[in-house]
Amino acid sequence: MSTLEISVGQFSDAGVKPVNEDAIGLHVPEEPLLTNKGMVAVIADGMSGAADGAKASRVCVSNFLSDYYSTPDSWSVKSSAVKILTALNRWLYSQGQSIYGSSHGLVSTLSALVLKSTTAHIFHVGDTRVFLLRDGKLQTITRDHRTHTGGRDFLTRAMGIELSLDVDHQVIAVQPGDTFLMTTDGVHEWVTDASIREILLEQHDDLIGASRSLVQMARRNGSNDNLTAQVFTVHTLAKQDQESYYNELTALPFPPLLEPGYVLDGYRVMREIHANKRTQVYLVTDEASGNQLIMKTPSPNYSDEPLYIDLFLHEEWIGRRLESPHVMKVIEPERPRQWLYYLAEYIEGQTLRQWMNDNPEPTLQRFREIIDETAAGLRAFQRMEMIHQDLKPENIMITGDGTVKIIDFGSAKVAGLAEIEVPIDRDVLLGTERYTAPEYLRGLSGTNRSDIFSLGVIAYEMLTGTLPYSMVLSTRNLNRVKYQSAMPFNQELPRWMDSAMAKSVALDPNFRYESLSEFIRDLTHPNKGFNVTQPLMQRNPVAFWRGTTILLGVLLLISLINR
Fold this sequence. Notes:
single chain; alpha+beta; Phosphorylase Kinase, domain 1; six-stranded antiparallel beta sheet; five-stranded antiparallel beta sheet; 17 helices
């Protein structure tokens, strides 16, 4: 196993100006933040024409560094950074307006680099620059947001200059030996790329000296601005080899199959609730507190399968980050664990599958309540940038008081975790075939619309007792199946509800709902955009075929006359 190792150099000088309005920052956090969030380097240049460019640049750097590490570790780097920059831009703009009465109150350019696992994410607004030196070749990664008008250069984008913000984002695979350089225009406008390359190569083992040399050369060449350079070289990347990764996964042994009365880490087994070939679920009592909990244990059959253990551990990791009355709550153990398992709240009730068997003809009101609360649980996943990927009636509980809870999330995909390189392939199809979105069958990645598809299938099945395509979808039949209206199976169903379900289970995700709220709204209120007029064949089959017969007779008569 290797950890991230870098060397860093920084140098900043006011130059000929009385105040230095540039700002820089770099932070390499401790674990687990280093793995889950990565290291961050930022550079900002307060606009000289702004009322307080120095404050703007300092706020940009300090707030990005602190706020980035405050975002959920389930979020992707892009989501975290863009949300922070958007909020920061609005703050700068509003403060500039309220304090200085101008859109040029607090304005700064900014470039930020997040190195997570083996990938660099670059975010850029303005005319600071990020360079990459690799194998002796220097390339400029960012593009200046400037325009030349009337003999002068003007910024076309900056932090705090407008209420809306457009951020450049790009991703680069990082290699050991890569050197990244970040500069303000006071440096790169006065030092040629050839000179930058030469200095970085000659002083590769003294990056502080290299940063100072770049600034000094720019000043000798006549720079009339603040001058700042920040450079770091990647020596090793944070990567896990297969052996170390497997050792980490198997740090805790699998527990044996448990019988009633058995005590494991202070939890007494009351009874087995559910078991299959992959997991066992027990009702246990914490002997210290008397609380009843659920204990989920992995099957001993998979003790030597890294992917299985990885997914089991991630189910607990995911559960601890979800907060919703409609998602099963994972419980932090009170005592150190000696075995591999996790604890969750005990939910008394029945699965949605059992409820559907008991209620084959639910009222539309109760149907909508169940789908609405299931959607609320899915929103908790979406807020954390997670996709459930295995939503089905067996994974949904209805409590004694009627509350709906999603209880299983072992197949969920987490955007933030997907960015971390591990020596196993997590991108496998884990869903249940009756509810799996077509894009998975086509080998594509899922999105929140994939979960909407699964919810749409569940909604359709609740109202009809069958599937929306009359069969289980597969790679062989995707190109020939067609949605079958739910109305022949449920005479009380309004056409606009049928249209809503049809849209939720569209084979092409681009034609599905973009958000859960849209789907829920259309299930409860007629969407005027739907064509709710029934074809004559469905409204009055007898009239349809009578009219068809008459028309064919007329056409036949005309044909005979024309002979």
